[in-house]
Structures are given as structure tokens and as C-alpha cells.
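Re: the pair you flagged

First of the two:
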Amino acid sequence: MNTSFHSYWHQVPFVRIIFPFILGIGSSMFVEFSYSQAIIMMLLNISMFGGLSLFLKSYLHDWIKGLALNLFIFCFGIALHVSQKDILKPNHFSKHKSQYIEVRIKEPLLERKKSYKALAEVISAIDSMGNRQVCIGNLAIYFQKDSIIVNNIHYGDVLLIKSNYKEASPPQNPYEFNYKRYLAFNNIYHQSYLRVNDLIKTGKSYKNVLFDFSYKAQNYFKEVLNKFVSSKTEVAVSQALLYGYDDDIDADVVKAYSNTGTLHVLAVSGMHVGIIFWIISKLLLFLDKKRWGQLIKAFISLVLLWAYSLLCGFSPSILRATVMFSFMIIGKLCKRDVNIYNTLATSAFVILVFDTNIIANVGFQLSYLAVLGIVTFQKRIYDWYTPKYWITNQIWTITAVSIAAQIATFPIGLLYFHQFPFCFLFSNLIIIPLTTIILFLDIGLMVLSFWDWTASIIGFLSKWLIIITNKIVMLVEDIPYSYINGIHISIAETIMIYLLILYVFFWFIQIKHRYLRYALSLCFTISVYNGYESFVNQTKKSITFYKIPKASAFNIIQNGVSYFYADSVLINDEERFRFHVQQHIWSQGADKIDKRSIEHSYIIHLPDRKLWINRNKLALKDVAKNDIILITQRTFMDFNEISNTPEALFILSSDLSARKRQYFANKLKELNILFVDLNETGAHSIAL
């Protein structure tokens, strides 16, 4: 067994190097390394590996040399990631004082609720004397929502803008989405909000021919879909299925697909690439019998697959699938047996060499984990049952694939999305075939778009199939206990769950009791960890005041129940609640969320103090020591009534206007009264 494993391990060289390589990249993402530090570490490892190779000749010492090689690959991952961080380079635009900067728009403008967003690269910085300095670096730009901007700014345009950029802010509330880190993982460290008067079009335009073709093709496809599918919701779903553009999909539709475990169909992935590859293979089947046919077929297949990947904007999931299929095509052409694990590892290594930051992309992680799960578990699950008929075989095949993919992805799904869809088997069984048919229809629509009569029929069929699909997804979502959310696990727990899956898998295929012991030990560890966490959460009593723009909100956790108080507008705004607050409440282990409006005056009696919420005239004579006073936009306080300094804590809510905030802050400072300004500090928690 050991000899067999040793022999197999040598057949998958990229599997061996991908783990230390990824660890190196991950370390560099969370620990600050300079480029010189990374190079020194790599040189030391080269020296160590060279020295060990010279002096350790016995095969018994191979593990030492292997360790040194893994350390070198680990350091190479660090050095590569550091070398791709623009912010560390001396010619990054933030290192130069400037009054204006010249930027090139790197993508079409994306419409948001209150602005247009685009990614730009900085070309040069211009100081007050007119001196120009060539620079590098990416900048996230938010344009004022104005028709002049959206109609006149396009991909490739060069703009001269005011140098009013700033660093992205860290999250202002606990467990809120870390947008600053998200930008940094995409090599973006600054953002800028521009009004119409803050920019000038230079008249210059620098476009990448391939990306320009991609954006124009996507725009053409959108026009075709708008013409023949017409309905906004259905066009948005078609765009997601066809070329991965999902920004136009309604939030409720996305939520329904997520809760039913079918969100993957709305992201162009390996399934889509596999369908495209199958279509190409069938269309080029006649070449198999021709001289040089295999070579021509491989070349055409590669060109078309990469063209489709380009069309989809090289999204992480499709990039992974395209690189993997490319290696498989080349391997088959060379008549080499392709090891799927080595192919996956090679594709990941190649992609990461070009863009180390892509490792942080959730789609990239889920894509690789899903394929690993299917490759590892699907055949074994399928063998549990032998279908007699074609239809039952198709149903069981989809079921086996769904189970295999879910085994590999559910831990990371719990980590990122805090939910588990119990109905994923049933929903995938229906939704995957339906969306596959829709994808075929949309491809046919693009091919036959010049023929209005036929295109109208295809568009009509596609539209109604999407309506039916969305309806089914929402009906499944409404089934009681079809999904569970609010699950909050740490990275450590995620790793333990993956180890548990591996040990159970090894026990099934090798029937060695030590793997069962390891699995049971991990189960015990996870149970103890969760038991302790639940005990702490059940006994925790705290109040948290949140910083939410133009809103007043706080949450009291007591005996495992969350009492959430906020303006009625915020309470009814599920999207803002989920973004700013929900993750924190889930992290506290609350079994129930009780939402209450604070439109009127309140006095909340807490275990050891009172919380005053008064939106009218506030009298201080009844305020006791340790009490908390929440000052909101409607609060009026006569500071002349204060005869002595109250020993209470004043909280300046985030719904206060700038003028009232300044007024209250100045008065409280004059009277030497303790206060917290949420606008300055972010969320504030107090243990009760």
C-alpha cells in the first residue's frame, strides 16, 4: 500500500507543490511581507536545499530535502504575491503628491442604486505645478448618477480627475462585509467618488482588443435578449446563464437560488464549459476520420473554449474550467493518460502564477472544491445503486453529482454564507436540466438572431422556461425547513470539518480503524467547541450600537435572544439589515431575532442600568449612574438644565446630521461628559 501510494504520489507533481504554494500566497495576504524579505527567505531556502542535496545522499534523508523544497515553494508563493501587490511599488500613485490623476477606465460602467461604478488604472499623477509622473495602481471609481456620465464614459477612455481618492474604510460594524479587504485582495487600495465637474475626458482611449471585443459581444447579446426575451428578470437570468453577468438579477431571485442550493447555475462554471465543449465535440465529430483531423479539432476546440472564456470576462470558475479542459485536450492529443487531480492542480498553479489574488475569490474556491468532490466521490456514490432504465440512470447521475459536489463545498458554504440547503437534491434534479435547456435555447437565439421569426419563438420559449424555473425555485424555498441559515462557524471549524470528511472517506475506501478513530476524535472536538460556544452565547448579555448610514439601530443580546431596535425604515429594509447587522447577530448564537421599532420615546430596563431613547425633549434629572442615553436626530436637549455632570454614557447615533452631531459633541466636551460618537468609532458594544 505504501509503495503504491509512493508511486502514485510521484505521478502527481503539481498536487505536491500546489499546497505549499497556496499556503505561501495565503500567508502573504494576511501577514505583511516586503519584497526584499520574501526574496531573502527564498534565497535562504535555495541555499538550504542545495546544501542538503550535497551532504545528504541517503534516501533516508529524502524527507528532509522534501521539506526544504516545500519551504522553497512556500516562500516562492509569498514572493510572487508580494511582487504582484502594486501598493508596495515605488511608482504607485499613492506615493506621489498630486492635484490631478490621469486614469484609464478598465471596464464598462456598472449601475448601482445611487451611482455608477468602474475600475480604473492610474496612468499618471500631476502636481500643482503641472509636473507629470508616470504611475501605476488600480482605483475603484464611483460616478455621480448622471446621464451625461453614463452616456459619455466607456471602456478604455482616459479621464483627468481630481485627486480626491481615499483608502477604503474598514468595516464599521462587527462581522460586516470587509470591503476594504475585498478590494485589497483584488489589488485595489483606494476609491474615489466623482461628480460631473470632477472629471474631464481627454479624448484619448486605450483599449485591449480582446476585452473590447468581449464587452461589445456582451452588449450585443444583451440587445438580442432584450429584443426577443424582453422581460427584465428573465433577461437578467439569461445573461447569467449565457456569459456569467449576474449584476442585473433581482436580489430576491438570487436569495431563492442560494437558499435552494442552485445558485451555481447562475454562475458560468465547469458545467457550462462542459456543455460548450460537448457541443463543439459533436459539431467537429467528422474531423475524427480525417488526416490531421485530431490536431485540427483540438486547435478549433481550444480557440472556441478560450473565446467563450474571454466572452465571460475570464471569471474564476470558467477560467479554471477552460484551463483544465485545455490540458485535457492537449493530453489527449499527445496520447497521454491525464490524471485529473494533477490536471486540476496544474490549472490552479498556472492561474495563480498569473494572478495570486484569485485564490481569495469565493467562486474560484467553490469551483475547484466542487470539481474535486465530483471527481473523488461521484463514482463511488453512483455505484451504490444500479439503475435499470435510462431515465432513472439520468436522475441517479445528477443526484450522485449533486451529493458529491455538496460534500466538498458545504463546509466553505457554511463559512461564507452561513446556510445549508436541505432540499439541494430535489432542486438540482429539476433546475439543472431546465437551465441546461435554457442555455441551449439562448445559444440558439444568438446564432439565429438574424432570423426574426425563429428568434422570436426561441426567445418566447426561453422566457417562459426561465419564469417556470424561477417559480419552482421560489416554491421550493417556501417549503418549511427547506434550508437553515444563521449557522456561524470559524475557519478552524471549517478545517476540522474538511479533515473529518477526509478521514471518513479514507475509512470507507480502506476500512482502517485508525481513520475512524481520527474521525470520532474530530467529531468530539467539534462538539466540545460548539458546546462551549453555545454556553457562552446563552449566558452572554450585551448591547451593541451600530453605525449604519442615516439610521439609528442597536441590538440587545440576552439569554440567547436578540432584541433588535431600529428605525422602521431600516427594519423593513432586509438588504441593509443583512449587510450591516445580521452576521453579527448570528455570531452571537441568537436563536430568535425580535425586531422592534424606535419611532417613539423609550426607557429600556437593562440588567444593571437603563437605556434612554428619547426623540423629544430629554430631561436629565432622572438619569442615574451607568445609564446610557442614545442621542438621535430627533433628540432635543436643553443643556441649561444640567446642574451637575451626569455619570452616564451618551451615544451619538449614526443618523445625526453633521450639524447636530457637531453641536452635541461640542456641548458634551464642554461639560466633560463621557460620550461615544458612532460616526467616529464605528459600532460600540457594552457588556451587561
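Second of the two:
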Amino acid sequence: MNGWLIVAFALYLLMMVGIGAAYSRKNENTEDYFLGGRSLGGFVAALSAQASDMSGWLLMGLPGAIFLSGISGDGWVALGLLIGTILNWLLVASPLRRYTIVAGNSVTLPMFFEHRYEDKKKILMTISSIIIAFFFVIYTASAFAAGGKLFSSVFHLDYWAALTIGALVILTYTFLGGFRAVCTTDFIQGTLMIVALLAVPIVALFIMKDQGLTVAQGLKDNGVENVESFTGFFTGTTATSIISGLAWGLGYFGMPHILVRFMAVKNEKEMTKSKAVAIIWVTLSLVFACVIGVVGRAFMNFDAIKEAGEERIFIEMITRIFTEDIHASFIAGVFLCGILAAIMSTADSQLLVSASAMAEDIYKGVIKKDASDKKVMMLSRIAIVVIAVVAYVIAIDPDSSVMKLVSDAWAGLGAAFGPLVLMSLFWKRTNLPGAIAGLVSGALTVIIWDYIPCIKMMVENPDTLLMEEKIGTLTEATGLYSLALGFPISLICIVIVSLLSKAPSASMIEVFEKAKKKEA
């Protein structure tokens, strides 16, 4: 095991935990712990939002999928995410920040829904918190699984031991520092991620050039018969696969861990800065994640990577380039920390949002309304531990697919919350019954579509190569991503139920109009 790799990882992990410890003394109340006192600057908000968004999927799941199948598959996912990110920052960020301030100074998404729809019975808060807890456990498990694969690949540890190390570090600094610690570490991690994404494929191309090898020749040497097909957007695609890929972009409108960054920005001037930084960051990161998949297929040995697991392609590229070709092991460690950064920046945000749902929304919002800030913060930290343990159990299978776990959680959150966030901000006729219908229908559609085996289908047994009958989910049978169905169903339910039920109150309309005009 290379000592410089250990030094780089140790320094990085100590810095993350140190930031958590430093901020632990600055959390005076729940608004500080969950929203950082609405004091985020433009650069921190932008990089924190995007780093918490992309997760290990960006540096493991997406490059691995491109490495295996080419651009035409998950390249559409990347394009959908790019469009979704841009629209989210341009359409949702500023209105949501203003509205959450006007609507009772809401510090969480469930609290915003409660105040927006004058939900005195706490129905929206309860449903929203349950949805967040359920799908964020799955989302956090994807980050833990990615961390386990990273540590096991780099340090040749048993997957269980590697998973445990990664989970403990994430848990420690999230537990201590709260929102500002998470955002500060996410800013550092977002910077590190983009540097690694840009540098590694460029260095790989220079090495290939020195060896007299082109990308096209490297692809052919690694089993790609038609280079144009491998790098093309439309090769082997169907309407279903294109719709499913682009539908990923719809998820942004309903991601609590991203939306909370919008709520926490200091002012409109900083928000403008955030939008520009975030859009540039996400464009570069998604493009270069796809480039890594293509260049990695040309640069590395296909059979060796496939045996190790295609989601480890970026890890193996970094290790080869900086420990074998260039002999700069410390730099290898720094760039490998970029992958760890992607993993940690999402997991910490998910743990914090899940904890806020349990402690601030369920406990203080529904069970004990007069609970002190000190008690809520204590319970939130307990909730962080509990959620982390459940996610750890889900991720303990070494064959856990980062891509599959992220896909399921993204669909559930996007379908449940995305349509309601948009309707809350832009359609004043939306009312409480419509909001409830949207939340429930979106979440249930994804659960039924992704998790409940209900249809007979024929599949090939990989051992015997014979076709066998199995009971599969609707996702497996149709190939259609559940978010592509859940989002419009939720949207339609909101509109129909709102129109068929009592119109919003005069006070609700007044707050809606005030939020549109207020310069917060």
C-alpha cells in the first residue's frame, strides 16, 4: 500500500472532521443548524448545491455506465441533468428563497409546505417527512456503497471495513457541525471534484499521445467495433430510453438537499452569483464525467476493469496515471479524495435533511410543538445516527449498484416534491387537498413502478444462457424510468384535485402575491 496515498486521505479526512468540530460551537439554534442562518455566500451556495447534488454517481456511476455502453445510454441522463440544473437555478432558486422567508421563515421544505398551504393539521409536514426519510435512506446508502468501493479499491480493504470507515467519517462531521459545516466542506469538495474531473482525462490523453495511441485506436483495442456508434448520442436508442434519460432533469425541482441551499443564500446579489457558478460547474462536470468514460475505455484494459467493476473506472485511471505512469502518488491521493469528496458531499447533506425532517418537522412540528431548540438539535443528531445505520445496512452488500440506488431515490424525491414545488411557486390556485394528492401520487407511483414485482417477463439466465420466466417490476418490464411517469401523474393530480376542491383562502393568496414582489 502506497504511503503517500494514506497521507493524502488522512489529511483530507482530518480536515473534514476538523471543520465539523469548528462549526459545532457556532450552532446557537435550529435555524443555524439546519439552514446556517441564511448566510451563505454565492460561491459556497453554488458549489455546495452542486457537490451535494452529484454524489459518487458523478465520478463512479456515470463514467462506469459510459465506459461499458458508450454515450448513447447514460449520455441522455447527463443531458437531462444539465437541463434540469439550469432550469432549477433560473426558475426556482430566487422565488423559493423569497417565499420561504415570507411563509413563516421556513427552514425546511416540509415546513414551507405547511406554511404555504396553512396546514394546521400538519398533514403535509408528516407526509413530506416520511417521504424524505424513506428515500434519503436509500440515497445515503448509495453514497456509503460508493465510499466502500473507493476505500476497498484504493487500500485493498475488505468491503465491509472500507464501508465502515467511510460511513464513520461522514457521520462524524455531519453530527458535529450541522448545515454550515456541511456547506463549507461541500465547497471544498466541489472544488476538488471539478479539478479531478478536468485533470485526469486530459493527462490520460497526453500519455496516450506520447505512446502513439489515439482514442479511436484505444477503443478498438478494447472491444469497440464501431467507434462512431460508441461515441454517438443516437446509437441503439429508443424513444423510451431518451425520455427516461431526459426525465432525470425533472428530479431537480424536488430535491430537498439542493432546494435548502437556495433557501440559505444571503441575498439576491449572492443568488445571481450562485446561478452563474453553478451552471458553469455542472456543465463542465457532466461533460468531463462522460469524457472519462470514453477515454477510460480507450486508456485502460477493458477486461480488467469489467472484472473489478465498471463503476471503479475513474479510481483505476487515477491509480494507474499517478502511481505507475507519472509516479506522483500524493497527487493520486488528492484526486482520489475528489471521488471521496463527491461521495461525502451528498451523504452529509442527505443525513442533515433527513434529520431535520425527523426532529424539526415531525417531533417539533407535530409531536411536541413547544420543544426547545436544544432538544430538537439533540434529537436531530440521534436521527442522523439512526438513518446512517439503516443506510449502512442497505449498503453492506458489496454488489450494491451506486447507479441503481441513486436512480430509485432520485425518482421518488423528484416525483413527490418536484411538481408541488413548482405549483407552490407559480400557481396560486393550488390548495391543500391538491398538495396532498401530489405528494402521495408521486411517491406511490415510484414505489409501485420500481419496487413491486407484478408482471411476468422472460429474462436470460447468465449461467445457463437460457430464457427463464420471472416476476419483475414495471421498470424492468418497460424500461421506462419511474420519474418520467411519476412527475406528470403528480402534476395532474395537483391540478385536478385543486380545481375540484375549495379555492385557497384570501390570506394564502395574499402571501403568494407578497412573495412574488418581495425583495428579500
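The chain has one domain: 3-517.

-B.
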